[in-house]
Amino acid sequence: MRRTARTLAAIASAALAAGALAACAPASEGPRIVVTTNILGDVVDALVGDQVEVATLMPPNSDPHSFEISAQQAAAMEGADLVVANGLGLEEGLTQHVEAAEAAGVPIVEAGDAVDVLEYATEDASGPDPHWWTDPTQMRSVVDALEAELAEHVDGIDVAGLAEAADAYRADVEALDADLAAAFETLGPERRVLVTNHHVFGYLAERYDFRIVGAVIPGGSTLAAPSASDLDELADAIREAAVPVLFAESSQPDRLIQVLAEEAGLDVRVESLFTESLTEPGGGAATYLELMTANGERIVDALG
Description:
The chain is α/β, with parallel strands linked by helices. The chain has 2 domains: 164 residues, Rossmann fold, CATH 3.40.50.1980; 123 residues, 3-Layer(aba) Sandwich (Rossmann fold), CATH 3.40.50. It has 10 helices and 10 strands. The chain has a 4-stranded parallel beta sheet with strand order 2-1-3-4, sandwiched between helices. A two-stranded antiparallel ribbon has the order 5-6. Helix 5 runs antiparallel to helix 6 and helix 6 runs parallel beside helix 10. The N terminus is likely disordered. It comes from Agrococcus versicolor.
């Protein structure tokens, strides 16, 4: 497994270097609301419609832990009426920019403040899990918070229209939760096991009674790296739990998880899920609701 660890580390380093070179698309002139992640950007768009200009910083198919922004986008944050961020350590490359916007007097709304935060813990790392959106009931709480903050901080917004849009979106989220619960109920308890490339499905597991067997990257961020002992332990856990599928993330190269499966001699398939980023229109997960629905279908198909 030491060769596996070296191989995985090299792949991870190359992926990070490539991500650092990728530039975000420039923001439009004078946004009133700036949103860090594209999942939250989709939700804010659904709530405000065409009432307010919304600039989402994170491009489709990106890693929220490592994407970077331009100087123009950073300036837009400091000139916004409101900045909406995920928080809980998710946007690791944007921390200084969020802090600068706050120092400039811009109200900051962090979705993580509205959720019941779960902790993740491994031998190497622990902390708050920032991936709350994998539980639709947490998204409902975030919509409640966003409705209040948008009404308070965005001058001229039609509060009645905002409330109507928020009610409609909450109904969609509640229907999503019911659909996922029904779909996952078709899986026996012994089939509800998940292995991913990093710890991203803790909230989904808590909501729908899945067991997280482990993750290739032992932490809540893609910027960590696995050790040889981490990989040995994960391979043993996969064999013991008879896990049939390893789930890679659509916004991350699946080479890490493929190498683990091949070099550890695991008889498993590797399937992809949409996890931390939306796709472009037509890519399978262009909205939050589409992302969660697609993941539910893929998990049931893979584990059923």
